[in-house]
UniProtKB/TrEMBL annotation:
InterPro entries (alphabetical): Inositol_oxygenase
Pfam family, one: MIOX
The protein's name in its UniProt record: Inositol oxygenase family protein
Native organism: Tunturiibacter psychrotolerans
Keyword Metal-binding: yes
Keyword line: Cytoplasm, Iron, Metal-binding, Oxidoreductase
GO biological process annotation, one example: inositol catabolic process
Cofactors (names): Fe cation
Gene Ontology MF term list: inositol oxygenase activity; iron ion binding
Amino acid sequence: MATTTLTENSPRKNPLAPDMEEWDEFLKGRYQEGKSEEEFRQYDKEANPDVAEFYRLNHGNQCLDYVLSKEKTYFGLDKGDKSLWEAAEFLNTLVDDSDPDTDLSQMEHLLQTSEAIRADGHPRWFVLTGFVHDLGKVLCLYGEPQWGVVGDTFPVGCAFSEHIVFPEYFAKNPDLHHPVYSTEYGIYEPHCGLDKVHMSFGHDGYIYEVMKNYLPIEALYMLRYHSFYPAHKHGAYQHLMNEEDVDMFRWVNEFNKYDLYSKGHAKPKLAELKPYYDDLFAEFFPAKIAW
Ligand SMILES: [Fe+2]
Ligand SMILES: [Fe+2]
């Protein structure tokens, strides 16, 4: 990742790579089986300077005003109609060919995730969720900077949890000392439910908006919260959750293991898999949907 300043907003020429992969690897390292909460917190800035810089930008810029303006730009879904294959092929234009260790395309990550879910005998909507879960990364192609597309997500408009990775980088966030946004509940009511909460902006929230009229609620939870590691790995933000959230987070956790650990299995063969996915898409979606 190139060294950038806190205010830099411009996308890089090839904004997904190799940094997107680097972030994925960092996540896997953080949540290796058996790693304690304490080890997680000490996750090393010196050993991961690019990732640390990524989080410095993310935590410094993701404030309530920023999130509201991005929601306004993207949640109206006026960026054109596309089929799922078209969206996946569009995302694939960001394949990194400069990094010899990561020869998996974005499409292959989606298919590996969905195929791992399918191999475990899960329902068709769950397989489909695996395929679509990262399609929101097309935000990079709309010109959003990486720190505004990937990375852990967290609520804005209330206090930042200490369970968010590199919490010290919130020092530059304009909401940190806001009289309301810095309080435990901020602009929210106790146990108001996460659907009332504005999450930091990224590919999760965007794909949730694109998919919300088509997929079951369990799938929508997986999509909207799949990078909400402070909650699903560390139990943070229970004070904003309602009973449905608590119940549904079982599904978020179930999904997460496929997202983190399905990489590295055999490369999926698109030509062989295509008929299955054509049927699957047709079962849940019209030919094209709004993005
Ligand atoms: Fe993701
Ligand atoms: Fe993913």
